[in-house]
Design brief:
Layout: H1 4-11, H2 40-75, E1 82-84, H3 85-90, E2 100-103, E3 108-112, E4 115-119, E5 123-128
Antiparallel strand pairs: 1-5, 2-3, 3-4, 4-5
The structure holds zinc ion.
Length: 129
C-alpha cells in the first residue's frame, strides 16, 4: 500500500506532458525510457513508502504472536495441559493469531511457534509440537 504522498507524486504534479519525470522529486528523467526515478535515493524513498504499511501490519502481527507465545508459556509453565479459556482470554490472548493450523480427524490445533493449542468450550489445551 502506498502513502498518499507518493501516490500523488505518481500521477499528479509531475506528469505535466513535459516528458518523463522522477516519481518522487519531479526532476526530469534522462536515459532509458522505462526509468522511473532520478536517483537511487528517490527509488529508496519510493520503495520505503510503498512497503511501510506492509511492514507495519507484519510487525503488529508478529507482536501479537509473540505475546500469545509468552502467555501460553506462562499459563502452562507448571506443566498443566489445559487452562480455563476465560483466564487466557482475559490475560490478552488473541486466539486468531497463530502460525498455522493442524487439522486432525477429531480436532483442530493451532500452532504458535513450538506450542500447539486447541480451544475447547471452556478450556484451552496445550501440547508441544
Ligand atoms: Zn528524484
Amino acid at each position: 500500500m502506498q502513502t498518499k504522498d507518493v501516490a500523488d507524486r505518481q500521477e499528479g504534479p509531475f506528469s505535466d506532458g513535459q516528458g518523463p519525470r522522477c516519481r518522487v522529486c519531479g526532476k526530469p528523467l534522462y536515459g532509458r525510457p522505462d526509468k522511473r526515478f532520478c536517483s537511487s535515493r528517490c527509488k529508496n524513498i519510493f520503495n520505503n513508502s510503498k512497503y511501510r504499511e506492509q511492514r507495519r501490519l507484519l510487525d503488529s502481527f508478529n507482536g501479537t504472536l509473540r505475546a500469545n507465545y509468552f502467555l501460553l508459556r506462562q499459563m502452562f509453565a507448571d506443566g498443566r495441559r489445559h487452562c480455563p479459556k476465560n483466564d487466557l482470554l482475559s490475560a490478552g490472548f488473541a486466539p486468531d493469531c497463530y502460525n498455522s493450523v493442524i487439522v486432525t480427524p477429531l480436532s483442530k490445533w493451532y500452532r504458535c511457534f513450538d506450542l500447539c493449542y486447541r480451544i475447547g468450550f471452556k478450556f484451552v489445551y496445550l501440547r508441544k509440537k
